[in-house]
Amino acid sequence: MDSIYLLSPMIAGAVGLVIAAFLYFRVKAQPSGNETMNRIAGYIREGSMAFLVREYKVLAAYCLVVGALMFYALGSEAALWFILGAVLSLLAGFIGMKAATFANVRTTQAAAESTKGNALLVALDGGAVMGLAVAGLGLLGLGAVYYCYRGTEHVGTILHSFAVGASSIALFARIGGGIYTKAADVGADIAGKVIENIPEDDPRNPGVIADNVGDNVGDVAGMGADIYESMVAAIVSAMAIALTIAPMSLPQIMTDSSDVAAVRMMGVGLPLILSTLGLIISIVVIFMARALKNKKPATVLRSSLMLPPVILTIVSYICMPMIGVTQNVTWALAAGAFGGALIGLVTEYYTAMKPIRLVAEAAQTGAGTGVIRGLAVGMESVALPMIIVVIAAYIADAQLGLYGIALAAVGMLAGTAVVMTVDAYGPIADNAGGISEMSGLDPKVREITDELDAVGNTTAAIGKGFAIGSAILTVVALFSAFNMEVNHVRQMNGMGPMQLDLTSSGVLIGILLGSILPFLVGATTMTSVGKAAGKIVVEIARQFKEIPGLLQGKAEPQPAKIVDIATSAALWEMILPGMVAIVAPVAIGFLMGPQALAGMLAGGLAVGATMSLFMANAGGAWDNAKKFIEKGGLPGHKKGSDAHKAAVVGDTVGDPFKDTSGPGIAILIKVMSVVSLLIAQLIALR
Amino acid sequence: MDSIYLLSPMIAGAVGLVIAAFLYFRVKAQPSGNETMNRIAGYIREGSMAFLVREYKVLAAYCLVVGALMFYALGSEAALWFILGAVLSLLAGFIGMKAATFANVRTTQAAAESTKGNALLVALDGGAVMGLAVAGLGLLGLGAVYYCYRGTEHVGTILHSFAVGASSIALFARIGGGIYTKAADVGADIAGKVIENIPEDDPRNPGVIADNVGDNVGDVAGMGADIYESMVAAIVSAMAIALTIAPMSLPQIMTDSSDVAAVRMMGVGLPLILSTLGLIISIVVIFMARALKNKKPATVLRSSLMLPPVILTIVSYICMPMIGVTQNVTWALAAGAFGGALIGLVTEYYTAMKPIRLVAEAAQTGAGTGVIRGLAVGMESVALPMIIVVIAAYIADAQLGLYGIALAAVGMLAGTAVVMTVDAYGPIADNAGGISEMSGLDPKVREITDELDAVGNTTAAIGKGFAIGSAILTVVALFSAFNMEVNHVRQMNGMGPMQLDLTSSGVLIGILLGSILPFLVGATTMTSVGKAAGKIVVEIARQFKEIPGLLQGKAEPQPAKIVDIATSAALWEMILPGMVAIVAPVAIGFLMGPQALAGMLAGGLAVGATMSLFMANAGGAWDNAKKFIEKGGLPGHKKGSDAHKAAVVGDTVGDPFKDTSGPGIAILIKVMSVVSLLIAQLIALR
């Protein structure tokens, strides 16, 4: 392949980073408002950064231990790229968080002194820094692996190691961040509403700062690491399949398929090229969105999410023939890209349309019936996304076999930069509202930030659907890559392919054991949020009791203590579920062999995919049912009515459902698959 | 085989039925108390029977339609035995319900005028009628099939048809009964506590009769059909495996294994012989329990549940060598029997011990945190039962391969009569308390019935664990039987065995589609309960508004209207989830072939097993956490406190979780497997 192809992923990645830097400084140059606003924003920024620093220390220790193990088992280069995969993820999280915590207060200030359009722009720019950092660093890293190791024998191992680095960080950042954000949210809510009966985001509540920190920690840094890892894993799975697929099964990706080595080489390079296209298209879309800042915010954000699949398909259709690639690639890619958009729309339906009215109505007869209805909505919402994934996988498989499924995952994640931009926009707008409230600004400012926030909530639902959908497809691809890697190693050792018959006891036992794991991660994360929230409630109650004048607004709360409690709890509690994800596949793989491990991945996929959809969407439905009542959706039941209180119970349950356990389970199945791929060569002969 | 072996299942079944008849008339001969008590008991009996009659009409229509289809596809005999399998299930439900609705008021009366021991005895006898009817009719029916068709070519088809009849009734009875019982329970509770603020079981509440009817409809008739079908399905799966297993894989069940035909014949007959032993042992245990009536009720019931595995293992160890059978059979049987008991104990831990205190404590900070903690407990409770099933399956597989797994399921269900006795005891004791309250008897009577009821709740948890555990193991066995049947047909047509490789797209797609179904059944049943409960609340509110003097206790409520609403709702709402269970495997089997169907069964198993454990145990934990607070378990929080109200919300959510959706999902996966087994020969060549 020409050197232009070779270099293009890294060049595109670097361009993305340069634009991210440009937007970062543009955001920072915006006016940041009065002293109170800066003080509050300072608290949030300090709390977020303090969490990140402490989290990174824990993760550094983890990386050293696992890096040492990898050094021992797979050599120094594997260990090095594992650490690089992790460091790039940390870097993306750090950059994004910095940008978000500058953008929040500047969004508030723009809403106060400038137009809604400018406020939207600041929030969007802040999100775009994260979006471009995630996609840019991902492409840069994988492009570098490919550039350095293409054609060598251990390119597979290096790719897997890089992916495990990315996955590890995503796992802990997502779970730790998820526990933090919901412990602070639930804790502050309960303490504020129930114990002291003071309104949301009230500056007297010592938990409000931690709640705002949580938005950044969970929805910016956590989500960023998660999407970064999905993108890396999807690309790596496609490359791994191309590297290990048997010559007779090579997919029909080149118009001239006579040279097997050339086809294989193209198969390995193609995922990177397609992701490069995706990043370029994403940059264009981000600038289009910036240009449309004065349109309705909802229109701007939704069209940003829906455009990339369309453009990507057209561009691929035009470009593929130019490099001698068949249109099968375009169709597989499009199946994934449109599938992702469709899943986003289904998610929006279940978390923002008719179902939330049903949940709100059910809350009229009490918290119990409201919770029941939300659970039912969540369960129902599982079907369509799964069917869409199946159809996308089916189409892609018909085009290019298992390689096609991996390309579909790449296609679903091609718009990563845009999805992440919109996702990170959400907490910025949310924070902007909190800062406006806590700084006692004119209620009109809050009105603007509330509108921006509401749009962010809807698009966050779409983004979340995207994330889980792509996770499922990626796991299917990784699962195939794992099996191919095992068979590749077996074949090189003169053994026949692994028998993965569904009725063999090893596979069946693996499936049953795998089905437990999502529930274990769900149980531990739900419990963690509950416990940490309880500690926060106790501390808030203590402050109101022991700080004279706090309730009257005459004294300052001590938010740092709450931040500290949430941080410690999150970092401590993330270890057990995180370890489950990493230890389970290693233990089963080494103790029971690759068949049982394949079964475990399949069982984990079936349960994990459905559970994460169920939990994320039930949580979204409760959240928006509550907001629906607050906006007067149920005549005769306004904020503070019994129906509203019942809906708040649903929202409380939904908080860890949608932001801790649901995403935690989705990342569990990704990490298990990536770890399995890495150890495949070590256990293939068992 | 000698004719004594051939006839013994039918003889034992008939003996069981004779004893059931004896106990039935013994119960009926007990004094039934004063006129008020008889009037209330009459309402409950009439409501229960009215439901049964209307349900049976719907099921008759279903049986005619499906019977006609089977007549067309598989011949007249298959259709006949399908209907017989269904009719025996209906008969067991009818007998059990009759007995239970006589026993309830007589238990109250025994508590009023005799000793606690005699009250326990009446309730136990009432339950034993159901227990013996279920096990007796099951053995009688399967014994007859075996007697008439042994050695013929179509014995497999007849067995499958009989099992599908049993499964179909179980499916609808379980789901319809589950919707009824929880709609009435939730509806009466909400209306009573929230709207009118009157205590539980208050005779003024028009929904209380329906609530008591629901206990019979759901926990007697529904549970009975469910356990009857588990027993039938376990036996049929073992027989089917023995019929179709390849000669070279025949399990080592006979000490002299030189005659392949004899081994196969013994393999087919053995499940019936072992179940016959199980029934005899159960009868002995039931009479032991009767003799111990003056001991602590908890001791009596718990030892009844724990004894059968021990006795069965000993008896099998002694008897098997006498008929030339290896001890491998004993070990496989024991693995299942002890596994079932262990799962029961694990269930008891999660629904009656430390975890419920944690849920109660979490309710101190609100309904939201209480619900979160209960969900976490339910999720955590999935792991151990699944691991126990895996270990039991592993041991059984090591002894006798897949046939051993089926025998383990037979072993787990050998104590069916006892388990069902204890399960049916629960609603009788519950009803007895309700009747005592509604009849205005001395509070001391209620104290006795409350103690009997509390014991019933704990043992019900054990029984429920048993039921789900045996369902999971049975599904594993049925799944194996399905695959063998397919391969058997393929081999007879000169084709190689079906390729069930986990990585083939058909299997993978099947797994993903199968994982949706438990969520669909969960969603529809949760929604149905919510909707029906809402209608009941509206009707109760109407009665309090429109019947003058009702609230003051000067006028009579109209319970029949509530019974009618619950009945219509349950019968109507059971159709959709029921159809999912039957249509899904047929559609996928005929459209996509046996590989995809096998994948669907595996995906359904992984998700269904874990979801049903999660829901059943979370529901049990919430229920008992509420009761824990009511009994003063949390110092400073008694009945009516905020913590108690919060726990009531958990209990409301838990009601459909544990008694509608959880069991509904367990039966879904059983029915899908049985239906697949039936159609295996029709789709094997696709």
Commentary on this structure:
Two copies of one chain form a homodimer. The first copy, chain A, has one domain. In chain A, helix 4 (116-149) runs antiparallel to helix 7 (260-291), helix 8 runs antiparallel to helix 9 and helix 10 runs antiparallel to helix 11. By secondary structure, chain A is an all-alpha fold. Chain A is built from 18 helices and no strands. Chain A has helices at 3-28, 35-74, 76-113, 116-149, 155-195, 208-244, 260-291, 297-322, 327-352, 354-362, 367-380, 383-412, 416-438, 443-492, 505-546, 559-573, 575-630, 642-683. Chains A and B meet through helix 5, helix 11, helix 12, helix 14 and helix 15 of A and helix 5, helix 11, helix 12, helix 14 and helix 15 of B.
* Computed structural class of chain A: mainly alpha
**Helix-strand sequence of chain A:** HHHHHHHHHHHHHHHHHH
What do the pLDDT scores of chain A average to?
A: 88
Strand content of chain A: under 5%
Question: Which pair of chains has the greatest number of interface residues, and how are they split between the two chains?
Answer: A-B, 76 and 76 residues
Taking all Cα atoms into account, the compactness measure Rg of chain A is 24 Å
Main beta sheet of chain A: none
Span of the ends, CA to CA of chain A: 37 Å
Question: Count of DSSP E strands of chain A?
Answer: 0
Describe the SSE topology.
The structure is a homodimer of 686-residue chains.
Chain A: H1 3-28, H2 35-74, H3 76-113, H4 116-149, H5 155-195, H6 208-244, H7 260-291, H8 297-322, H9 327-352, H10 354-362, H11 367-380, H12 383-412, H13 416-438, H14 443-492, H15 505-546, H16 559-573, H17 575-630, H18 642-683
Helix pairs in contact in A: 1-4, 1-7, 2-3, 2-5, 2-6, 2-16, 3-4, 3-5, 3-6, 3-13, 3-14, 4-5, 4-6, 4-7, 4-13, 5-6, 5-15, 5-16, 5-17, 5-18, 6-7, 6-12, 6-13, 6-14, 6-16, 6-18, 7-8, 7-12, 7-13, 8-9, 8-14, 9-12, 9-14, 9-17, 10-11, 10-17, 11-17, 11-18, 12-14, 13-14, ...
